[in-house]
Amino acid sequence: MKAYDLLDMIGNIDDTLIDKARKKPAGPKWPVWAAAAACLCLAAGGIFYFAKAPKTGGNHVQAWSASYSAEDYFRYSGTGEGSSEAKSVADSAKEYAESRFYSDDRSLMEENEVIPALQTHPLFYAEANFEEDGSLYSVVLSWHRRDLKGLEHYSDLSVIAGYKEVPIVRDCIFVETDENGNVLEPAVTVTERDGVLITARGRENQEKTITFQNESGWYQISGSFNDRYEDVVSLFTWFWEHPIDFSRFTLLNGDCYTYTTLDAMPEAFSGSRPDFAARGFVCGYSTVTLKNEQPVAFEAVYVSNVTREQAENSEYTPGENGVDQIHWCLKAEPDVYELAGCIGDVESVTKEQLLSLSPPDSVTTQTRVQLRQGDWVLIIYTTDVDAVWELIESIR
What CA–CA distance (Å, rounded) separates 305 from 363? Predict the structure, then answer.
């Protein structure tokens, strides 16, 4: 496949879909999930698009049977010999007029069979995105598992879906290159099941996706490089058998997240923050996260021995000329991994415990301090543990 063939493929995408791929959807910044630029998503293969009629080209269309295995859905997807990049549909979505979040409803949604019970994945996020007229555009559901010591148990499973009428799913733009950088023909597998075309791509060591549209709506199921075919197909099968009831996701019944600065809301966590100014620090930037207008997270970067203008413009080098940098994060709704990573609590931690900490590797220059502060979690990144100790003492 030549480069200009790829451009022709991209050129066939409807302009409205390109507009929808310009920005990442708004959502909570805790944790922050990095999104690729829209142009990279289009070039690197993360977006699936729709055409008026299915066109499979050289890809095989196989008929589903009851004896189908998970590998059968991906039968031709791993036939290339090159390397690849891929991003999810969620990475290339637009910035919606409104978004609401339903992560706190996990148990209720499991009980009502809106979602499967994935007890092996402690982190769950649910988001719905709405158009300017208030109508639902998409629902994003994701489950995550982490290993505090490595990637052995790493997993990202997700579903992005919508019910608005769209043309049939045509294919994935999936760019793969050989060792010389030449673009290879996309390797995907198309399966026809009950009159629906199901498109799968990805190998065992890559991100994997299954996309389809049936009478209930359109869906893309994704798994990370560390997820097996069985993991992705199991999630696909569940939603194939349990179509999402999109009517339960509305602007009225979801959580609303907004963001402001500490200058605009100086009272946020006021009794739990140190007086940085009194200790010679200026604020480079700050963010206060509001959930339904109530503060639930705060983060700021403080720098010593510089002017506020220098701090705001990052015109300094931590560790040089007496400059210290402290990234202070406070979370009122910590997740299970953030709680597990705490070395103690603010009231009882000792200076010796802090001094025993060290950067996680030879490249990272900052030490991470993670403590409980009441029911909250305090996470600090610092170039000066002694200064952090003084700050912690001041809020006991």
Answer: 24
Residue-wise pLDDT tens digits, 63-99: 999 999 999 999 887 655 444 444 444 444 456 789 9
Q: Tell me the C-alpha distance between 74 and 51, whole Å.
A: 22
- Amino acid letter, 39: C
Rounded to whole angstroms, the Cα distance separating 275 from 142 reads: 38
pTM of the model: 0.77
Among the listed residues 334, 277, 281, 272, the one whose alpha carbon sits nearest the alpha carbon of residue 305: 281
- Could you report the per-residue pLDDT of 198-253, keeping only the tens digit for each? 999 888 888 999 999 988 899 999 999 999 999 999 999 999 999 999 999 999 99
Residue among 361, 289, 278, 386 at smallest CA distance from 332: 289
